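Why does residue order matter? Because the sequence determines the fold. Keep that principle in mind as you read this record.
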Amino acid sequence: MSTRLYYLWALIERFGANVLSLVGNIVLAYLLVPGDFGLMAMVSLFTGMIVVLVDAGTGDALLQLGSPTRRDFNTVFYFNVAVASLLAAIYVAIGPAVARFFNAPELREVMPALGAATVLYGLNVTQQTRLRSRLQFRKLAIINLLAVAMAIAVAIAVAIAGGGYRALVALQVAHPASVLLLLLLTSKWELRWEFDVARFKQIWRFSANLLVSTIFNLLSQYIFPMILGWKYSATHAGYMGQAQKLLQTPLNSFEASLSITAFTLIAKEPTRERKVARVQQIFNTMTMVNSLACVAIIALARPIVEVLFPAKWLPVIPYLQLMALWGLVYPVCSHLMLIFKVFARTSVIRNVFVVEKTLIVVAALALWRHGVATIMLVSAGISLLSLCVYLLMARGVIGGAGARGLLSTYVRNLCVAAAAMAVGYGITFAVYIIMPAGYATSVAALLLGAVPFAVLLLRKRESLLSAL
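Structure:
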């Protein structure tokens, strides 16, 4: 299989899963109320911690080894299962306290369900890493797409039956359960009772730094819906949570599929020079697509929400625009992390991440009385400072000329995207003035406003694909 096909299948997996999730989310938005989504948004930090703490960066550590052995995978598997079991017990124990903190009795039954999801994820995460290490991206894509579809079907069935927020709880449990079932049916596990302590210490030295940085990233990402649920209402938290889901479809789909696949393939490059060249090519593609996606969402937020959701979700629009504005900066920091992961400098990621995300959390807690807009603008400024620090630190890895090249690439792609946004926003504004209010107007505004972004992507397709 060619390198491009690896990227294509990884993109199909991430983008397809996110699109399916978005479609399911839209269906559930018609069946449920914003407060139901708000309940799950309030505990989104705990949901995110399932992936972060159970994997603990060991997946990337295995991939960084280049050719991990069966013993390596089994060592990490038993670690993942042990952590998952411990975390599940903690979630069950703290359920009543979480419910009291948010003044939401429903969370008493949500937290144990998240505990069950944690154990299920712990049983399948290492096997997914094994498939990724063997470049079996096609199989992974099929498994994850089927799992998402199965989980959504379960959630919709519960919602139709009048389950309310329990439909979203069922979604959280059904997805890892479906992945585990499909992995058992389609993959050879090669499980043995073996745990290499010396090898685990080597893996942990790499993964520990990633774990710390990712925990702080989650705190900064989910602090906003938590504050909204705590200080305002579950409904406001639901609006923020919905905005985050909408933004994740274009951003996380491309960024996650490209960065994970790129890291796997670049780690196998034989020379340092080849690795640096590949990182620079990938960075150009990542920042161009990320910038275009964010400015498109800023310009088209109103017609996107009007077309996809019922009227009760219109307050999502400003949340979505603010999230997209911040998205122009913080994902770029993730793109730069690829440099430090490839060259095993994860301590840089840990140190910068801890400072950046701590500042964001402190700002959120200190400024909540001034509104979410103020908090998110301050957070974007903090992420911009973090971006500058990453570029300075990159000089020690890829040289001063290489770091300056990355900066110029980012600024150039940002300016091109901003020009497209101006045109797209102008078209959308004109459509709303000329045409009478209604669903057809929203559809027209969305389709016509998206034209400049589509044209720009087509014109840039060769340079974007050259990195793959």
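The first helix runs from residue 3 to 31.
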